[in-house]
Amino acid sequence: MRGATIAIAAAAALLLSACSAGEERDVITVSAAASLTDAFTEIGDAYMAAHPDTEVRFNFAGSSTLAEQINAGAPVDAFAAASPATMQVAVESESVGTPRVFARNSMSIAVPDGNPAGISSLEDLARPDVTVIVCNPAVPCGAGAVLVFENSDADVTPASLEPDVRAVLTKIVADEADAGLVYRTDVTAAGASVEGIAIPDDVNVTNDYLIAVAPDAPASAVDFVDFVSSPDGQQVLANWGFLTP
Predict the structure, then answer these.
(1) Phi and psi angles of residue 29, each rounded to the nearest 5 degrees, phi first
(2) Which of 87, 193, 215, 239 is the Cys-Cys partner for 173 at CB 3.0 to 4.6 Å?
(3) Pairing mode, strands 179-183 and 100-112
(4) What's this model's pTM, rounded to 2 decimal places?
(5) Surface-to-core class of residue 154, CB atoms within 10 Å of its CB (0-12 exposed, 13-18 middle, 19+ buried)
(6) Which run of H or E residues covers position 139?
(7) 162 pairs with which residues across the strands?
(8) Do 227 and 43 form a contact (C-beta atoms < 8 A)?
(9) What is the C-alpha to C-alpha distance for residues 60 and 36, in angstroms, rounded to an integer?
(10) Residue 168 to residue 107: CA distance in whole angstroms
(11) Using the 8-state DSSP alphabet, how is residue 164 labeled?
(12) In the prediction, which pLDDT does 157 show?
C-alpha cells in the first residue's frame, strides 16, 4: 500500500513538473500575410528548434484583415504585412512599433495544371471565355492585381474577389477558374498543382513586406523578428521565391 502511495506521489510530482515547465515556455503570436504561410511556417520551425523554450503560433490571413483584428484588440506579438499601406494601419493605431522591410514579392498569373484555357499572357485574361479570379482590392494582392491590369491596359473583369491570395490559389488548384493573379511565391508553393505565367516587368508590380513588434511583446518576439531578417531566415524566404529587401 505504501509503495502504491509513493508511486502516486511520484506521478503527481512529475505532472506538476511538466505543467510548470509548460508554463515557463514563452508563447509568441505572429500574425502574418497569407502569402507567408509556407515560408514563415518553416522559419517558425527553425526558430523553435534553436529556441526550445519558445513556441511560435501563427495567424495567417489577408494583411488588411489582420490589421483590423490587431487594431480591434486581437492578441499579437509581431505583425508581418504584405504591403506598407496595410502595415501603416497598425502603426498609426500604435498597435505595433516601427516596422522593417524583410522581403519583396511580385505578381504572377497562375493557371491550373495543364493550362486548359490556353492562357499565355495578360491579354488572354480579357477573353470572354476565360474565368479570372483575384484578391479583393482591400488586400495587397488585390491592389497589386488592379495595378497590373491598369499598367497593361488589360480590360479584365474578375469573376470573384477572394479574401486573400491563398483563397485564389486554392480555387486555381481545384480548377474552379481558368486563371488567377497571385504572388510568384504562391506559384512556387503550389508546385506541380499550378502553372505560372510570368508578367512582363514593365507592367508588373513589386511590393515590400514589413514586420513589426507590438509595444508590450516579450523579448522573444523581438528575437523572432531578428531571426526573420537573419541570413538563415532570409535563406528560407529566398527558397520560397521571395526577393531580398
Answers:
(1) -105, 125
(2) 193
(3) antiparallel
(4) 0.85
(5) middle
(6) none
(7) 135
(8) yes
(9) 8
(10) 13
(11) S
(12) 96
What's the rounded mean pLDDT across residues 116-144?
Answer: 97
What mean pLDDT do residues 170-194 have?
Answer: 96
Cell numbers standing for residue 112: 491550373
Place of cell 484588440: 73
Burial 65-77 (b: 16+ CB within 10 A, else e): bbbbbbeeeeebb
Model confidence pLDDT, tens digit, residues 17-75? 444 444 577 999 999 999 999 999 999 999 999 999 999 999 999 999 999 999 999 99
44 CB neighbour count, 10 Å cutoff: 22
**CB distance 110 to 135 below 8 Å:** no
Please give the grid coordinates belonging to residue 225: 523578428
Residue with cell 484583415: 65
**Closest by Cα among 55, 89, 95 to 74:** 95
Whose cell is 504572377? That residue is 108
